[in-house]
Structures are given as structure tokens and as C-alpha cells.
Amino acid sequence: MPESLKPADAAQLAEAVAWAAAEGRTLEVVGAGSKRRLGRPVAAEYRLELSALSGVSLYEPEELVLSAGAATPLGEIEGLLAQHRQQLAFEPADYGRLLGGPAEAQTLGGVLAANVSGSRRIKAGAARDHFLGFKAVSGRGEAIKSGGRVVKNVTGYDLSKLMAGSHGTLAVLAEVTVKVLPAPEKLRTVLVYAQSDDDGIAVLARAAGSPHEVSGLAHLRAETAMRSSVDYVSGTASSVTAIRVEGPGPSVEHRCAALKAMFGGAATVEELHGRRSAAFWREVTDVAGLLPAAGGLLWKLSLTPSEAPRISRTIREALGGEAFYDWAGGLVWLWLPERTADAGHAVVRGAVAGHGHATLLRAPEAVRARVPVFQPEAPGQAALATRIKQSFDPLGILNPGRMHEGR
Question: Which CATH number goes with the domain that contains 265?
């Protein structure tokens, strides 16, 4: 078990990283630890625990901006926003259960460092699009700051977008600033039943191209839908294609009626209201409850939506497993039995080639150590990523090997 360093504030954080850089000691950066099983295993000499860097330092509801310590629990942030009928519009997913840990344990900094975004990404964008600024410490032990409290504050390169998705390999976040938005007045979901994968994705494409401003587009095969806690989804013994609509009450009612008329002529349709809709989209975003509970491997495929059903079929015919679709088919969650050798990465990446990329989100540590977890980079991309890593962390002391072997 590596020894822990627990800085009490940003100044001590800078001292700890500067000491590690001077001594050539490697650090595993940990907030609440909810994502330690995400990515390749980190073999570091010290664990840098950020739990003390917590608490909201600024919240201006009228300006739609919030700043907080990187280790602030996400639940604390969402509770505060709810008091003002606001939200993190990118709908951060909670992968706690998915990765074998507790739910509701993640931090705001961890969500941003992993760029974790939910079903509303098709409308609101990813976590990185709501990341306004940060204070951090580079692998050199230098305090750095980027961005600020307004959206249009960037001169030159937006470093917040670079930090989002870097998984703590470039710098240690101490404080982050995010954009918040009003929560919708009403939420409803139109369900279209008994569609094949191809027809379901076609329905979602039509809904996405309609003028009805949808905010969630998912397709669940029958075996996946039956695991839902929502009776209108699990009780039909068929596939379910779901279209979410949010906003002012009269507008939501009008748009739902129009969508039901659009698809009801050739299929059975139903409508979920607020509570059931919220529960359903929480399941889709968090994934864990919709896939087999008994272990297994999990791939996250980002694909050309029109190719998603074919690619999913190709992989499942070769390896077995289950899949469901989010982001109108642009995101496929693929569960494979753990007996699959080397996580089936050759089959998965071969099927995905030319149409997107694949991330091995869940697998035993030994598998994640020998199989590329993130999409292998083209030579030019790898060279650029290496130069960026060397600029921020030239000694490679921060989360070494978390994303790619050797850096």
C-alpha cells in the first residue's frame, strides 16, 4: 500500500507536488477514489489525497457560475443547485456502482478530470463545455491558473478543455469553476415500443432532426429494458426507444404530442411523466442497473450513429454479450462476459475502426494493465500528446500510465 500525502490546502498541495518532483517520486492523484478503477492501473509510490480541498468558494445563481474545491462531493454541489432550481446541464454520470464501488461518492474535480457526461450531452454538450476555469498544480510543482468566472474569458488556448479528460495526468486540480444552468420546469419522455436496433436508431435520428428540441435519445433492447425499475419500460417484454423532452410545461406537452403523432402511426407509443422520466434517464446515464450485475467487461463505444447497430451486432455475434444505445446511437454501452480473452479488444477495435473509438471502461486490473484501455493513438496524435505531457509533467510523476503505457 503506497504512503499517503494529504495536503490541507492549495499551498500544501503545491509543496507536496514540488517535493515529489524534486525527489522523482510518483503520485497517484485521488479525490474520493470513485474512479481509481477507470483507466490503466497506476503504480505510484505515494497516494496524493485531495479530500481536504473541498467546499464551495463561490456561487452566484444570477450569474450561473460556481467555484469549488476539486474534492467537493458532487452530491453537495447538486443539492445546492437544486435549492435554486439550477443544475449541471451536462448531467454527470455516476460510475460508482459500475466500477465496483459505492454510488454517490464522486467529486466535482473527478467528474471534470474524466470528462464524464450523461444523456443530455446531445443537447448541452460535454463536461468540458461547462468547465470555465481552474486552479491547479503542474507536475513541476508550479501553481497554475486558467479561465475565470465567465464563458468568454479565454485568450489563446482554453486549458480547461485540455484538463477535462486528462485523468489527472497533466496537473492536480485544486479548485474548479463551472457554468450552471436553470433546471427544466417539466420533464417527459416519449416511448416507442418494439423497434429493432436499426429501426430504433432511425426513430432517434428522426427525433433528433425534428424541431422538437429533444434532450435525450436512447434505445434499449428487450433484455436490457426488462432490468429497468420503471414499469412502462420493463413491463412490455419488448425493446424501448426513448425520446426525452424538457422545458416549460406547455411547450413540453406540445412537443410530446407532436412526437407521439410522428411515430404513433406505425408503432405503439407511451409517455413517461416527471418521476418516471427522471428515474429512467438516471438509469440510462449511470448504466449499472441496465446491464448484467454479475461482473463482466464493459466497453464504451463512441460511434457514427448510423453504423452503431451493425457494429454492435458484429461484436456480439463474435463474443456474445449485451448492448444498449444512448446519444441517438452515438454511444453504445457493450457488456461482454469476463471469459472473453483480453477483453475482446481485437474484435472490438476491429469492428469500430473508421467509425469511432472504444474505451474499455471496466475490466480486471490484470487485463487493464496489458490491453489498451483508451483508443490507441495515431503516431501524430501520440507525439502531440507526449509533448503536452512533457510540458506539464516532464518527469511523469502524476498518475503515471493511467491513460497510456509509458506516460
Answer: 3.30.70.2190
